[in-house]
Amino acid sequence: MTPKSPHIAAVLSLLFGPLGFLYIGWKFAVCGFSAIVLFVAADWLIGLPIATPGRYIILPVFAWKGATITALLNKCKGDAPRQFHTFPMAILASTDLLVGLAMCFAGAVAVYEGASRIRNGETGEGLAVLALGAPIAIQIAGLIFDIIASTIDSWVMSHFPGTKNIFRHKSRPLTGRNAGKA
C-alpha cells in the first residue's frame, strides 16, 4: 500500500470535512459523517443550536484527525494496512473525532459568549466567561463526549475481538502480528 500524505489528508479534511476522509478510505468518510450526525444529535439534546459559523469552526478538528489517521496508517507494516481499513477501526477513529468536535465547539461557544458580553459592556462577566467558562465548558464537553465515545469503543471492541483503539491510546506502531492490538 502506498503511503499517503498526512498534509494532503489535513488540507482535504479542512476544506471538505468528512468528505476529505475519502483520501484515507471510504469507511473513514462514512464514519466521519456518522460522527457529525451523532455530534449534532447530542448537541440538540443538550440544547446547543449549531449556528452556521459553528459548522466551519469544527473543520480544523477534521484536519487534525485526517492527518492523525494517515500518519498512523503510514506506520503500519506487513498486512496491518489491510486490517487498518476496516469498519471497526474507522468507528474508533470517529469516536476520537467526536470528542475533538465537542471540545472545539464548546470552546468556540464559550469564547463567543465571553466576547458578546464584553461587546455589550459587561467586561467583568465577559472576562470571567473567557477565563473560567471556556476551560470549564471544554472540559465538560470533553467528559460528556468521552463517555459517549468510550461506550461506542467498548461496544466495538467487544463485538470485534482483538480490536483496540489506537487513536486514543497510542502505544506502538501496527505490524501484521499486533494490528488491532496496539
Largest sheet features: none
Structural class: mainly alpha
The overall average pLDDT, rounded, is 82
The number of helical segments is: 7
Percent in helix: over 70%
Shape category = elongated
How many extended strands? 0
Q: C-alpha Rg, in Å?
A: 18 Å
Strand content: under 5%
| Whole-number total of structural domains | 1
Oligomer: single chain
What are the secondary-structure elements, in order, as H or E?
HHHHHHH
Low-confidence stretches: 171-182
Q: State the separation between the terminal residues, measured CA to CA.
A: 20 Å
Sum up the structure in keywords.
mainly alpha, 7 helices, disordered C terminus
